[in-house]
Amino acid sequence: MQIYLPIAEVSVNAFTLVGLGGLVGVMSGLFGVGGGFLITPLLFFIGIPPAIAVATGANQVVASSVSGVLAHVKRKSVDFRMGGVLLAGGLLGSWMGVWVFNLLQRVGQVDLVVQLCYVVFLGLIGAMMLQESLRALYRSSRPGHRRRLHQHNWVHRWPLKVKFRASGLYISAFPPLLVGVAVGVLAAIMGVGGGFIMVPAMIYLLGMPTKVVVGTSLFQITFVTAFTTLMHAVSYNTVDIMLAVLLIIGGVVGAQIGTGLGARLRAEQLRILLALLVLAVCAKLAVDLFMTPEELYAIQPGIG
């Protein structure tokens, strides 16, 4: 069933959009990521202009993240204090990111910069996650191997320490605040929730136990992406409501399915699957950068 998207100014199949939303929703509940790193490139692939895909993709991330975080709240696997610190940094970062996005929009380089950001960040994060996850899986399979809850590093020597009871941590508030800022900037420029950055940072940098990482990540992603969507809508009218509604319908259902699947898999297996998915999306985007487009010239949809 073909429908016309008034803001994006293209016609797409409605069932395809619902399916994409459902797929991203499953990723959200399964891995604790908002799914923007997946939904935004997929929207590129079906012909949605990058500026519209970034802003509207962030809108869909809100819905799937809300659905996922509610399921984790019921299981008491959300560290609200840690989530609050990450959120404070995320709101600041998203404001900065929207400003940069608008600047790139004015100079006509937003499409190239967004795609390059995806290739660089997804490649680096995916490779590091895959390496560490395979190493963790190998260590856990060794008989008699005892795993430490978390290791103390330079992060744990910073001042202004706060006790995060749900995570079992007593660390400075600065590292999670800086992680939140970085994720907020990415949310605004790339249309992502930032979970593919935040989840590894929470596990390997902050030392949080995996059982509370997913829910806490989704808690922060929900509010940061909602703020980002509002900023994009007010600044450049780049949120297509029709597109967002269809993605949300699939995303809410998919998040519940993903949360159920996640409870049946080991933490190491989840991280390996996420790493492979990140690398696959990165490879597709990298190939597209070097391929000759079907149309050498395109008219940018009116934004203003």
List the defining traits of the structure above.
two-stranded antiparallel ribbon, 304 residues, mainly alpha, globular
Describe this entry's structure for a reader:
This protein is mainly alpha-helical and 304 residues long. The chain has one domain. The chain contains ten helices and four strands, in the order ββαααααββααααα. β1 (2-5) and β2 (10-13) form a beta hairpin. α3 (50-74) runs parallel beside α9. Belongs to the 4-toluene sulfonate uptake permease (TSUP) (TC 2.A.102) family. It is a multi-pass membrane protein. One of its GO terms (cellular component) is plasma membrane. Its main location: membrane.
Helix and strand arrangement:
Layout lengths: L1 E4 L4 E4 H18 L4 H10 L4 H25 L5 H28 L2 H32 L19 E4 L4 E4 L1 H17 L4 H11 L4 H27 L4 H22 L4 H24 L14
Antiparallel strand pairs: 1-2, 3-4
Helix pairs in contact: 1-3, 1-9, 2-3, 3-8, 3-9, 4-6, 4-8, 5-10, 6-7, 6-8, 7-8
